């Protein structure tokens, strides 16, 4: 791939992801959450649901509601995971987003 082709690919991908920085799966955030949240897994689910719009991921978000190990509402926004993240992802904001989506899905299922 030439430098120009690489630039075109990166530009197209960034347009596709609406400029959102993405989790690369490096797992540097693993084990740092005081609430024992699996940050790596949850950031993957966020981007599959929000950026890529995958239905399976949206169902996974719905299952997060009040779950023991993956309830995004448990995030206390301490920032410990952000300090470890080379992508500097806005993890607390994405956790809040997941919590809102999970609650909305739960409420819709109850209605
Ligand atoms: S910001 Fe939230 S997800 Fe990240 S380590 Fe703190 S409590 Fe866990
Ligand atoms: S440190 Fe950041 S990029 Fe790496 S797995 Fe965790 S959230 Fe994803």
Task: Give the topology.
Blueprint: H1 3-16, H2 39-51, H3 55-63, H4 80-84, H5 91-110
Helix pairs in contact: 2-3, 2-5
The structure holds iron/sulfur cluster (2 copies).
The site of one iron/sulfur cluster has 14 residues, from α2.
Question: How would you describe this structure in keywords?
Answer:
111 residues; mainly alpha; 5 helices; 55% helix; 0% strand; flat; binds iron/sulfur cluster
Description:
It is a single chain. The chain is mainly alpha-helical and 111 residues long. The protein has one domain. The chain has 5 helices and no strands. It has helices spanning 3-16, 39-51, 55-63, 80-84, 91-110. The relative contact order is 0.17. Bound molecules: iron/sulfur cluster (SF4) (2 copies). One iron/sulfur cluster (SF4) binds at residues 32-35, 37, 39, 75-81, 91-92, 95.
Distinct helical segment count: 5
Give the helix level as a range of percent. Answer: 40-55%
The count of DSSP E runs of length 2 or more, i.e. the number of strands, is 0
How would a crystallographer describe the biggest sheet?
A: none
Ligand set: iron/sulfur cluster
**Proportion of residues in extended strands:** under 5%
The radius of gyration is 15 Å
- Coarse morphology: flat
Multimerization state: single chain
Give, in order, the helices and strands: HHHHH
């Amino acid at each position: 791939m030439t430098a120009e082709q690489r630039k075109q690919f990166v530009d197209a991908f960034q347009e596709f992801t609406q400029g959102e920085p993405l989790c690369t799966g490096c797992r540097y955030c693993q084990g740092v959450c005081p609430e024992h949240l699996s940050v790596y897994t949850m950031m993957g689910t966020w981007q599959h649901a929000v950026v890529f719009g995958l239905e399976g991921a949206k169902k996974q978000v719905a299952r997060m509601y009040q779950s023991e190990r993956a309830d995004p509402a448990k995030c206390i926004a301490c920032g410990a995971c952000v300090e470890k993240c080379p992508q500097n992802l806005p993890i607390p904001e994405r956790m809040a987003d997941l919590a809102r989506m999970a609650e909305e899905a739960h409420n819709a299922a109850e209605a």
